[in-house]
Amino acid sequence: MPENAAVLAGKPIVQRIHEFYPKLPEGERKVADVLLAAPADLAVRNAIELATQAEVSNATVTRLFRRLGYASFDEARQAARAMRATGSPLFSGKASKPLGDPISELVHEETVVIEATLSRVNPLVLRDIGSAIRTAPRIRTLGYRNSHFLSQYLTAQIAMMRPGVAPLLMPGQTESEGISSLGPQDLAIVVAMRRRPAGFNRMVEAIATRGCKVLLLADESIRGAPAHATWTLDCVVETPQFADSYVGALALLQMIVVEAERALGAAGHRHMEDVEDLRERLGELE
Question: If you write DSSP's letter for every residue of 190-209 in order, what string do you get?
Fold first, then answer.
């Protein structure tokens, strides 16, 4: 093990490179420049490819990674892959620039995400979720960070069809205050795409202890929280781009909305008519 490994343990490779950069020999600095320009490449390339791109020897690559506190190139690559799995934008994306039409590539990539997400849905589970949306006295939604806009979208769509739908955490509320409002017959819908905040699993567990049903929508990196959920729906989010894609999650939310509309039936339509009548009288929309 490199003698500086203990000191550097826990620090991401980009931070390590910046700390050592001023003192790096010219060859190792070339490798560092390649890595800093595209950290995501480390997760998908081998040492020979990295050396070739930097125009240095394999030994130079090895020396750099040992200087940075890694036992080998493979250890550093595994660390980069772990960061990629968490959704870190620094370690996500393609190893090279697209050669074709970027619009066509994006359409293809997003289509793959939608198909992969929807192919995982069990229609019987979807039917149960629609029934829960129909019968729950209250529905509360929750989503942190990028999951927040997804939960807001679902809140707005379901609220057009039935009363008693709102975010779990209102402005100014603590998490405990929001969770305490849940009861045994209620439904909590939690959107949890990767890069979730610390303590997230504890939040889901606390929600579940209220006795309500819990619908969890998450990507495949979720761990622990599904044990406390009534249903867990998987969303594919990773693409060759540097940022996660949520088109699959949005398509899945749309499926839930359609199923909710079917389950609510005439009652849902009456509520929508009431909402539309109020909008007309208040002149809210153009």
Answer: EEE-SSPPTTHHHHHHHHHT
> CA geometry: angle at 229 spanning 263 and 125, to 5°?
35
User: Of 136, 115, 101, 273, which Cα lies nearest the Cα of 210?
Assistant: 136
Residue of 177, 173, 203 lying closest to 190 (CA atoms): 203
What is d(CA 142, CA 167) in angstroms, rounded to the nearest whole number? Answer: 6
Question: Burial code of 215-245, b = ≥16 C-beta within 10 A, e = fewer?
Answer: bbbbbeebeebbebbbbbbbbbbbbbbeebb
Which two three-digit tokens encode residue 151?
Answer: 């939960």
Q: Is 55 exposed, middle or buried (0-12, 13-18, 19+ CB in 10 A)?
A: exposed
> What proportions of the chain, in percent to the nearest 5, are helix, strand and coil?
60, 10, 35
Q: What is the pLDDT along the chain (286 residues), one digit of tens a residue?
A: 455 555 455 677 777 888 888 888 888 888 888 887 777 677 777 888 888 888 989 899 889 888 888 888 888 888 877 766 665 555 555 554 555 677 888 788 888 888 888 888 888 999 999 999 999 999 999 999 888 999 999 999 999 999 999 999 888 778 888 889 899 999 999 999 888 888 888 889 999 999 999 999 988 777 778 888 889 888 888 777 767 788 889 999 999 999 999 999 999 889 888 888 888 888 888 7
Cα–Cα distance, 245 to 242 (Å, whole number):
9
pTM (two decimals):
0.67
